């Protein structure tokens, strides 16, 4: 029988800005399980008793226990009470560190926000409009919502310069069609977003690598590439870059803009992560609005299911070309999700979600740094715990190649992304990208990172002993 002091050892301090108290209680349980303060089979206090001890109402504790049960942390045993659940067996399920998605926002009941948001949409919008065609790149309200989302980076924006798209990938493909000729060349960094490589191949364009240094793409190398290849389009992901997590300094951005201006090269600025950064330099599009098409998606900092991206393009003629190309790919963004996105942006829910994602991402960066410290080819500083990034770049020990590590990890139920998936050059580095949001449960993420750390400590060909 546990004494009361031990039974409450898992309870933390309520924080003023960490979300509703019932979610904080559920998070206390989750953190205590991860740290070993609580173990499977431990009995928790009765709800009424816990409410009295914490000086909260009974409903708060009831909701907290309900959330913890939904997360498979607790189980009810009838009259015997509530107990910490045994780990749920997930036979054969891959621990996926390969897909970049935002982690579950800290301190937020996403289900409740979704119910409230959809209720507001249905209250304010004719349902027939939500089931009809919308052909204009977003309604006036949708474009105004986009302006709100981009305001921290750009300040006030003319709403007509914004187009609403069904995600960044279709926007990227349409911009490639609108801004480069068939068979043309797109310049990009040697390690770049795989979606660019896929879109360019499908659309009959060639991606040409441009050399980079510690500050990003080299202006001299870009100058030479513009002369050599006659390219009309440059692709950049300058903030918390995918895959490396690097952020290009402001001075380097201006140097690249000057090179592109001399050669008449347009720039696609793919910028899904700036609002996750603590301090990001101004976007290229803020310095050269006529020269840059800026893409901002909500998929990487709120939720992929919203399928909403905003494209900022100041030239009316280029916007028309872009919209023509976009309609050939995706006729419209889904009205229901667009309406939900607009509702959340106007009522502040999106900003609340963003702060929750940032908080959780920062915690996951700390966790990865702890568990993978010393596992890179140099030292723990080679992890890129940049701001609130939701991915890190790990240079491997010399005895591992990225392709071999990815194959061995896959065989052991762990998915990571080798550098070859991002490479536009002939010889990718021996490194992997690790996504920190694709495993929702923190305890499972901890297990995945610990498994990766153990794998990195082994050498290729070393297998675990099997005893029968």
UniProtKB/TrEMBL annotation:
<dbReference type="Pfam" id="PF00155">
    <property type="entry name" value="Aminotran_1_2"/>
</dbReference>
<dbReference type="GO" id="GO:0003677">
    <property type="term" value="F:DNA binding"/>
</dbReference>
<dbReference type="InterPro" id="IPR004839">
    <property type="entry name" value="Aminotransferase_I/II_large"/>
</dbReference>
<dbReference type="InterPro" id="IPR000524">
    <property type="entry name" value="Tscrpt_reg_HTH_GntR"/>
</dbReference>
<dbReference type="InterPro" id="IPR036388">
    <property type="entry name" value="WH-like_DNA-bd_sf"/>
</dbReference>
<comment type="similarity">
    <text>In the C-terminal section; belongs to the class-I pyridoxal-phosphate-dependent aminotransferase family.</text>
</comment>
<protein>
    <submittedName>
        <fullName>Aminotransferase class I/II-fold pyridoxal phosphate-dependent enzyme</fullName>
    </submittedName>
</protein>
<dbReference type="GO" id="GO:0003700">
    <property type="term" value="F:DNA-binding transcription factor activity"/>
</dbReference>
<dbReference type="InterPro" id="IPR015421">
    <property type="entry name" value="PyrdxlP-dep_Trfase_major"/>
</dbReference>
<keyword id="KW-0805">Transcription regulation</keyword>
<dbReference type="GO" id="GO:0030170">
    <property type="term" value="F:pyridoxal phosphate binding"/>
</dbReference>
<keyword id="KW-0808">Transferase</keyword>
<dbReference type="InterPro" id="IPR051446">
    <property type="entry name" value="HTH_trans_reg/aminotransferase"/>
</dbReference>
<feature type="domain" description="HTH gntR-type">
    <location>
        <begin position="19"/>
        <end position="87"/>
    </location>
</feature>
<keyword id="KW-0663">Pyridoxal phosphate</keyword>
<dbReference type="InterPro" id="IPR036390">
    <property type="entry name" value="WH_DNA-bd_sf"/>
</dbReference>
<dbReference type="Pfam" id="PF00392">
    <property type="entry name" value="GntR"/>
</dbReference>
<dbReference type="GO" id="GO:0008483">
    <property type="term" value="F:transaminase activity"/>
</dbReference>
<keyword id="KW-0238">DNA-binding</keyword>
<keyword id="KW-0032">Aminotransferase</keyword>
<dbReference type="InterPro" id="IPR015424">
    <property type="entry name" value="PyrdxlP-dep_Trfase"/>
</dbReference>
<keyword id="KW-0804">Transcription</keyword>
């Amino acid at each position: 029988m546990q004494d009361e002091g031990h039974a409450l050892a898992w309870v933390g301090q309520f924080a003023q800005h960490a979300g509703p108290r019932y979610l904080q209680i559920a998070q206390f349980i989750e953190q205590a399980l991860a740290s070993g303060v609580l173990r499977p089979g431990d009995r928790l206090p009765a709800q009424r008793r816990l409410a009295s001890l914490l000086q909260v109402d009974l409903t708060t504790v009831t909701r907290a226990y309900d959330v913890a049960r939904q997360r498979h942390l607790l189980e009810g045993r009838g009259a015997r009470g509530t107990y910490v659940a045994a780990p749920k067996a997930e036979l054969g399920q891959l621990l996926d560190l390969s897909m970049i998605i935002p982690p579950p926002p800290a301190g937020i009941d996403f289900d409740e926000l979704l119910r409230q948001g959809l209720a507001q949409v249905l209250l304010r919008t004719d349902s027939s409009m939500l089931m009809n065609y919308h052909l204009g790149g977003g309604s006036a309200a949708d474009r105004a919502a986009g302006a709100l989302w981009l305001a921290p980076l750009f300040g006030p924006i003319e709403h007509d310069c914004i187009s609403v798209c069904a995600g960044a990938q279709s926007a990227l493909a349409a911009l490639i069609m609108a801004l480069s000729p068939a068979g043309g060349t797109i310049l990009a960094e040697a390690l770049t977003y795989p979606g660019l490589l896929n879109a360019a191949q499908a659309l009959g364009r060639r991606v040409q690598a441009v050399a980079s240094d510690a500050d990003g793409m080299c202006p001299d190398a870009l100058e030479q590439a513009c002369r050599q290849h006659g390219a009309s389009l440059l692709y950049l992901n300058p903030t918390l870059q995918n895959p490396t997590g690097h952020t290009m300094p402001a001075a380097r951005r201006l140097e690249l803009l000057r090179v592109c201006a001399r050669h008449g090269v347009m720039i696609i600025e793919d910028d899904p992560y700036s609002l996750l950064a603590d301090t990001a330099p101004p976007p290229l599009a803020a310095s050269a609005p006529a020269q840059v098409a800026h893409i901002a998606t909500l998929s990487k900092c709120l939720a992929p299911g919203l399928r909403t991206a905003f494209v900022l393009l100041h030239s009316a003629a280029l916007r028309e070309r872009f919209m023509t190309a976009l309609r050939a790919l995706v006729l419209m963004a889904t009205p229901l999700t667009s309406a939900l996105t607009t509702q959340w942006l106007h009522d502040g829910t999106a900003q609340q979600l963003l702060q929750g994602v940032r908080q959780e991402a920062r915690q996951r960066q700390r966790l990865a740094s702890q568990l993978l410290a010393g596992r890179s080819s140099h030292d723990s500083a080679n992890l890129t715990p940049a701001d609130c990034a939701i991915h890190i770049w790990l240079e491997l020990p010399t005895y591992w190649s990225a392709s071999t590590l990815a194959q061995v990890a896959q065989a052991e139920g762990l998915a990571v992304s080798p550098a070859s998936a991002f490479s536009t050059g002939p010889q990718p580095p021996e490194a992997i990208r690790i996504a920190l949001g694709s495993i929702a449960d923190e305890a499972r993420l901890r297990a995945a990172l610990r498994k990766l750390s153990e794998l990195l400590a082994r050498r290729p060909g070393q297998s675990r002993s099997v005893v029968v």
